[in-house]
Specification:
single chain; mainly beta; Porin; 18-stranded antiparallel barrel; two-stranded antiparallel ribbon; 23 strands
Length: 462
């Protein structure tokens, strides 16, 4: 017993976040802190000055945002061989100044994780993991189920987006070898001012390849929702709004990534996603997909890699009675995941858009990474809502114009630098620009400026 006590004491001394480790119980604290400075010029190509000239929106702004995320977790080894574990954490965030969505000098403290879970082994090499309570969950590549909470607006920390956990979650996993099945019920942590009472449930099946590849499928059903859908109308008629249309929507997403090849395709990686959505109550038939091809020059200095991707999300055809608008649900919207463009992703959600993208990444050292991203962004359907009715306006003749009249929306360029200062400290900075396409220029009367921005942040994670 003395030896065990001494070992536990040495472990706690070497890891300051470890509070207790003895008698099968380990208790650990967690702490994350972030500070971000951002500057934006000609926000949203200054469309507010054209479509809403009387609105007090400032297209040039700068702000500072910060957050802290403290928490405590435990693991307890039961006599049965199973492990009982859980975590409790919170997020406090604040924005000083006015952010890109014209909100600032505000913040909030919210519960993040508060779950209790049990994992263990079964017969025939099977294992289980079940949990109940708020926690993070990302399924597949994050195309539909990833972002469990909302930041920004009255909660502050718009760009950081420190909240990730679902407000309510029941998750059950069963695994055997390379196969894992996940059943879930999720209630997102929505903004109190915009809570649409969304609830989703479904299953995910995933096969993990021996060298990092995978193949899987996720089925999702929206059990409850007050979220509306816009629907395009023929001619110059403004779009209709279908209240509560999201409820009853089902989605099936099939996703995959190749294991490393040998021989002629060595150093190549390919991925693919496809999703279909249906809702008989509103005659919804929508689709989306993405393919990527990446090549890594592993033998060259700085280990450069180049990835091409094409992603597309159906829009509503104004000439049909059906609704074809894709609903991206709770997707992971970061540039490294499912953002459509870098800056444009703040304007267009993944609906009625498509994008060709190139990503070049180099590592001058194991601690430094430079990433250059380019995206050419287009609308799938003309005269149809982009996101939720953006660009619905009255032109100089007094006619209502819906969506865009030219498919080319924008070209985005984003240069990002990341530095690992130490195992717990990370610095990221970036500069970006969005050049308006003809679709945006037509909205602005051919006088849309280039939208630019810079940021620098540091994150401490213990």
């Amino acid at each position: 017993m003395a030896t065990l006590a001494a070992t536990a004491t040495r472990a706690e001394d070497s890891d300051p976040m470890l509070l207790h480790s003895a008698d099968g119980l380990e208790v650990r604290t967690h702490f994350q802190f972030g500070l971000n400075a951002a500057v934006e010029k000609e926000l949203f190509w200054d469309l507010a000055g054209v479509t809403a000239p009387t609105a007090p929106f400032e297209p040039n702004t700068e702000w500072l945002e910060t957050y802290i995320k403290p928490g405590v977790s435990f693991e307890y080894a039961l006599e049965t061989g199973a492990t009982l574990y859980g975590k409790l954490s919170a997020v406090a965030s604040y924005t000083l100044g006015t952010d890109a969505f014209d909100t600032g000098d505000t913040g909030a403290t919210t519960l993040e994780e508060a779950y209790l879970a049990l994992r263990g082994d079964l017969a025939n090499g099977m294992s289980y993991d079940v949990s109940l309570g708020p926690r993070e969950l990302v399924l597949g590549t994050g195309m539909l189920v990833a972002n469990g909470a909302t930041s920004g607006f009255e909660r502050g920390a718009l760009k950081f987006g420190p909240r990730k956990a679902w407000e309510s979650a029941a998750i059950a996993r069963l695994s055997q070898g390379s196969l894992t099945g996940t059943a879930f019920y999720l209630d997102p942590n929505e903004m109190p001012s915009k809570d649409a009472n969304n609830e989703i449930a479904g299953i995910d099946l995933r096969y993990a390849g021996p060298q990092g590849g995978y193949l899987g499928a996720t089925f999702v059903e929206v059990l409850n929702s007050e979220s509306p859908y816009p629907q395009a109308n023929p001619g110059s008629a403004p779009p209709s709004v279908i209240d509560g249309a999201r409820e009853g929507t089902t989605a099936l997403n099939v996703y995959g990534k190749t294991d490393p090849f040998s021989g002629v395709l060595e150093n190549w990686t390919f991925t693919g996603d496809i999703a279909i959505e249906r809702n008989d109550a509103i005659d919804l038939e929508a689709w989306a997909g993405r393919v990527t091809a990446g090549y890594a020059w592993q033998e060259l200095p700085w280990s450069p890699s180049l990835t091409y991707s094409y992603q597309s999300f159906s829009g509503d055809d104004p000439e049909t009675p059906e609704l074809e608008r894709f609903d991206p649900l709770f997707y992971q919207g970061s540039p490294s995941a499912w953002a459509t463009g870098s800056k444009s992703a703040s304007t267009f959600i993944n609906s009625n858009v498509n994008a060709h993208a190139l990503t070049l990444r180099v590592q001058p050292s194991p601690m430094d990474t430079l990433t250059l991203r380019y995206a050419h962004i287009r609308a799938n359907e003309l005269n149809s809502p982009v996101q939720f009715g953006q660009a619905t306006r009255v032109d100089e003749t007094g006619s209502v114009v819906v969506g865009v009249t030219d498919a080319h929306l924008a070209d985005d360029v984003f240069l990002e630098y990341s530095r690992i200062i130490n195992p717990n400290t990370f610095l990221t900075s970036g500069i970006s620009a969005s050049f308006p396409g003809e679709g945006i220029k037509n909205v602005a009367g051919n006088d849309a400026p280039t939208w630019t921005g810079v940021f620098i942040n540091v994150v401490f994670n213990y």
